[in-house]
Amino acid sequence: MIGFVILNYNTWEESKKCIVSVFESNLNDDYRIYLVDNGSTVLPSEEVQVLVSHEKVQYIANKSNVGYARGNNIGIERALNEGCESIVV
């Protein structure tokens, strides 16, 4: 399984585009998307909330901005724990 880790901090529109891009790719169903919100101060749009509720998307909300590396590591750790063999950041 492939795990896509998307780190977000007040960049909901860019995160949405990234999620949609993965959905539109020609991947088989053996993937998961891990959207890690790094303590955003801006709320996501309704479109993003719908995407986050998709069965292929795991939403991880950090209470604060823990930085780029640690934010990605949180998503990577979840992906590995759920059986992902490859990770794309």
Provide mean pLDDT, rounded.
95
How large is the radius of gyration? 12 Å
Strand order of the largest sheet: 3-2-1-4
Number of helices: 3
Secondary structural class: alpha/beta
The N- to C-terminal Cα distance equals 14 Å
Biggest sheet details: 4 strands, parallel
Order of helices and strands: EHEHEHE
Instruction: State the oligomer.
Output: single chain
β-strand number: 4
Q: Low-confidence segments, ≥5 residues, pLDDT <50?
A: none
Overall outline: globular
Helix content: 25-40%
Beta-strand percentage?
Answer: 25-35%
Essential attributes:
single chain; 89 residues; alpha/beta; four-stranded parallel β-sheet; 3 helices; 4 strands; 27% strand
Strand and helix map with partners:
Layout: E1 2-8, H1 12-24, E2 31-38, H2 46-52, E3 57-62, H3 68-81, E4 86-88
Parallel strand pairs: 1-2, 1-4, 2-3
Task: Tell me about this structure.
The chain has 89 residues and is an alpha/beta fold. The chain is built from three helices and four strands, in the order βαβαβαβ. The chain has a four-stranded parallel β-sheet, with helices on both faces. The protein starts with a strand and ends with a strand.
Structure, briefly:
38% of the residues lie in helices and 27% in strands.
